[in-house]
Amino acid sequence: MNNPTIDRNQIESMVRAAIRGASGATGQCTGAAVADQPPGWVDGKPNLRVSISARHCHLTDEHVETLFGPGSVLEPEKDLYQDGFYAAKQTVMVVGPRRRMLPNVRVLGPTRGASQVELAFTDSISLGIDAPVRHSGKIDGTPGCVLVGPAGTVQLDQGVIRAARHVHMNFADAEHFGVQNGDMMNLIVRSPDCGVVFEDVLVRADEAAKLEVHIDTDEGNACHLDAATEIKLVRQGGGACGCGG
């Protein structure tokens, strides 16, 4: 596929969002870190962050070379809150049906075994793609798109999703909240005139993760996250244990 001709006015009218490693509205404590405590803990207790994950994509090593040239690798530009993950310097254009497109979609690293594009609902409408809500990696039967880079294009037969909300945590966090990997939680965000309770927040627990909820740009706007006065994470179906702002 040849690179599509892009009208500058169309590009300027596109909704653009920078990758935000963490929102300013976080349930964070003010104390100093203590040695020999679980990752992300402050003063001996979990330190909750809620981060807005803007549109982005994950690529395989093969697709990195196709899009950016033989021998290319992802170049870290900004570390994300979770150790070992980063926003790369590279971006791609995502092209949907009828040549609808989103320019400058950030690539996140490290590379993965399958390429995947994560959008908010408004992004999928803009592209003309009916992207389903899926947890990361669950891409079977999802729609595809075309990725355009400076050195080539990639046709994805599947992999475009609206990322389901989820929370990263380590095993000490999980014990604190009384949950385990695969459980569901509720995120309660209190903001002036537009508080929201987000249900079905998937727990993704491992040994090294730090406590962080990921929601997309639409969800962050819906609850006016930047103006939040209280944030709590609670076990779904009962239990009031939580770490709030």
Automatic annotation (TrEMBL):
Question: One short Pfam family name for this protein?
Answer: PTAC
Keywords of the record: Acyltransferase, Bacterial microcompartment, Metal-binding, Transferase, Zinc
The protein's Enzyme Commission number: 2.3.1.222
User: Where would you find this protein in the cell?
Assistant: Bacterial microcompartment
The enzyme's main class, written as a single word, is transferase
Q: What cofactor(s) does the depicted protein rely on? A: Zn(2+)
Q: Which InterPro entries match?
A: PTAC
Q: Which domain of life is it from?
A: Bacteria
Q: Has keyword Membrane?
A: no
A GO CC term?
bacterial microcompartment
What GO molecular functions are on record for this protein?
A: acyltransferase activity, transferring groups other than amino-acyl groups; metal ion binding
NCBIfam families named among the record's database cross-references = PRK15070.1
Q: Which family does it belong to?
A: Belongs to the PduL family.
Name recorded for this polypeptide: Phosphate propanoyltransferase
Chain's gene name = pduL
